[in-house]
Structure formats: C-alpha cells, structure tokens
Amino acid sequence: MTAPVCTSASAAAPSRRNRPQSGLRSGGGTPTYPSFASYVRARQPVLLRTARSLTANPCDAEDLLQTALAKTYVAWERIEDQRALDGYVRRALLNTRTSQWRKRKVDEFACEELPEPESAPGDGDPAERQALHDAMWRAVAKLPARQRAMVVLRYYEDLSEAQTAEVLGVSVGTVKSAVSRALGKLREDPELMLVR
Length: 196
Hints:
The protein is mostly helical.
C-alpha cells in the first residue's frame, strides 16, 4: 500500500474556525479530525475498499485513492462539516474514476487486429489477394459435399488427417484419398488458373 498523500504538509495547515480540534463533536458522537493526516490515518482502509470496488486492479485503486485524497487536501479548509468528509472523498473517487474511464474510452481502443494492417513487401495488391480468396471459395463450393467438408476441416480448420477422420467418422485413408482428389480438382479449376 502506498503512503497517504500530503500527511506531513497537513500538519502545517491552519486550524479551522469554530471546530473542536480533537475528540468527539459535542452531542453528535461524530469523531473530529484535527488535521488531514489524522483523517487519512483513520479512514484510509475504508476509503481504499471503496476505491477497490471501483477498479479491478489493486494498484489502480491505490492511485485512485491518492488522487481523491489530493483533491480533498486542496479543499480541506473549505469543508465545514466533518460528517461530509467521507462523502466528499467518495465523490472525488467517483468523479476521478469517471474521468479516467472517459479519457481511456477516447484514447484507447482494444482490438485483436489492427484496423488497417500494413502489407508486407511482396504481399502484392490487396485487391488481387481478395480476388484469389473469392475464387478459391467459389472453387471449394463446387466440390462434392464430402470432399468440401474434408478440405475445410483440413485446411481452413487446420485439423490433422486423423482429427478430420474422427470428426467425419471415416478412416484416415479415406481422408487422404478424398483430399487428394479435391486438391486435384482445385488445381484444374479454370477460375483459379486465371487468377494464378
């Protein structure tokens, strides 16, 4: 856990007007805090639990609490009612977290693929690659259903011959011969010959 924010500086802060400096508030039973440091020492565990409920990462929660406490320290002299201190810090936690979320939403985009991957040298024209891809799918669609299933499982799903045989309930030899015939048909497909 990180050290409380500005605890040593708060000891030099001027005292509040018309406020008891220690012990309990008369008649209310609410504890008073003579300094910001005493407030942080007393309430940090509770406030840290609140921060942890706002973010999944414990380190982010500590940073969030530190930021909220820094905002509270700046406003320390303006907070007249000490019963409102926890509410003030919690509001600072929520506002800070919301600001972080909004900023991150604009600045960061998590995705599995880059939106526009750069083509490596020698990849050729993207339009030509797409034309070949489309021609290949049309040629595969012309194959008999059993051969098409075997080609898709072997080369698009990347299953081994044994796995393909198990999925289709046939022997490995059947898969080998059917895939061989299918590849022969694909090599002779006139549309693929034009694209190559």
